[in-house]
Amino acid sequence: MKQTSRRRFLASGAALALAAGAAPALASRRKFNFTTAFGANRHSTYRGKRIVRYATREKPGTIIIVTRERALYYVLPGGKAIRYGIGVGRQGFTWSGVAYIKRKQKWPAWHPPKEMIERELKQYGRRLPDVMEGGPRNPLGARAMYLYQGNKDTLYRIHGTNAPQTIGRAVSSGCIRLINEEVIDLFNRVKLGTKVIVL
């Protein structure tokens, strides 16, 4: 890992995420540079989650993602919500609808879909791994929440990131990413069956 990447990793608080739950050993020492793709090495101006006033008819515990705002709202009682900054899907990969969290995973392994592997190779000449075990270099970060519609996995996730500078930007393939400290915070609040609305 380059020294600048190490400094960014430590400054991002990912070291705190490691303290919150030890990452499993990496299965491979091959390096995949996910943080420089799509100009993602620019700094973020994000200053962290905060409690805000938020009027909604949805019950507390619901997650509402407002893509254009680059914001995820976790609904609280009393007309309030926790507002988290997020990274969202880049052009052509955005989506909207209602889904439910049916699976949660600490330090998740990443299984890129076949379509993503083919697309990345064709467009960027980058060969993604068939699977990448969980850990601080994994692009899913410290935690992942898996979104389903009925019994069908949408293949979209709410997850952490090892590239905190991408928060506030449209860089993903449709997944919603948070900085690792905040995805751990959200993960600890969310229950299986939580409703997720993407606008």
Radius of gyration: 16 Å
State mean pLDDT (0 to 100 scale): 77
Uncertain residue segments? 1-42
Q: If classified by CATH, what would the architecture be?
A: Beta Barrel
Give the % helix: 10-25%
* Total number of helices: 4
**Number of separate strands:** 11
Q: Calculate the terminal CA-CA distance, rounded to whole Å.
A: 37 Å
Query: Order of helices and strands, N to C?
Result: HHEEEEEEHEEEEHE
Oligomer: single chain
Largest sheet: 9 strands, mixed
Class derived from helix and strand content: alpha/beta
Reported by name, the CATH topology is L,D-transpeptidase catalytic domain-like
Query: Strand order across the biggest sheet?
Result: 1-4-3-2-11-6-7-8-10
Which overall shape is indicated by the principal axes computed on the Cα atoms?
globular
Number of domains: 1
| Name of the CATH first level | Mainly Beta
Beta-strand fraction estimate: 25-35%
Describe what is shown at a glance.
With 199 residues, the protein is α/β, with parallel strands linked by helices.
Report on this model:
The chain is of the alpha/beta class. The chain has one domain (3-45, 88-187): L,D-transpeptidase catalytic domain-like (Beta Barrel), CATH 2.40.440. It has 4 helices and 11 strands. It has helices at residues 3-11, 14-20, 114-124, 180-189, and strands at residues 50-53, 63-66, 71-76, 80-85, 88-89, 97-106, 143-149, 152-159, 170-172, 176-177, 195-198. Strand 2 (63-66) and strand 3 (71-76) form a beta hairpin. The longest helix has 11 residues, at 114-124. Residues 1-42 have low confidence and may be disordered.
